[in-house]
Amino acid sequence: MPAPGTAAADPATPADTAFPKCVTAQLRLDKGVGGPVGGDWFLRFINSSSRTCVLQGFPGVSQTNGPSDDPVGEPAVRDEGPQAPKPAPVTLTPGGAAQFEFITYPKQINDCAALRTTTLRVYPPDNTESLWLPWDNLICPSPQRMLVVRAITPL
Fold first, then answer.
1. Are the CB atoms for 90 and 154 separated by under 8 Å?
2. Is residue 61 helix, strand or coil?
């Protein structure tokens, strides 16, 4: 219990774990499970390094036409609603994985001049370097929002 007049530390911060935050170079991205029919995907970060690390929070996700191209349409918005998982540290041992839910709204495509994209760019939480997957999909141009991302969770 903290001393009177002081705040308790947030137990869900990676700083409170015994391991450092995962950096992009330690991770690979996997398409996981899900599919275009429902527009609901569970993508995975896999620790491809020899060191244990921690992921916490929301990845940044956008559709592009190449690993280093500019985003097409709006990036994914965070789902921080009452039914969504809350950000909590997920420890990844070497070879270990964590997942996040990525939701697309394909029915909205009929209401816009949709653009085709070839790549999904994903930034692990607290990283400025991205990973990518081949992603043949459609998206509405800005400002229509069609992508939602949820916090990292254990597998």
1. yes
2. strand
Q: How far is it, in rounded angstroms, from Cα 58 to Cα 81?
A: 13
Give helix then strand counts, H and E, for the chain: 0, 11
Tokens of 113: 């001049």
Q: Residue 35 has what pLDDT? A: 67
Share of the chain above pLDDT 90, in %: 67
- Domains along the sequence of the chain with CATH: 24-154 (2.60.40)
**Residue 138: closest CA among 33, 123, 28, 111:** 111
Residue 13's pLDDT is 42
Identify which of 30, 32, 25 has the alpha carbon closest to the alpha carbon of residue 51.
25
SS3 25: helix
What does the pLDDT read at residue 7? Answer: 36
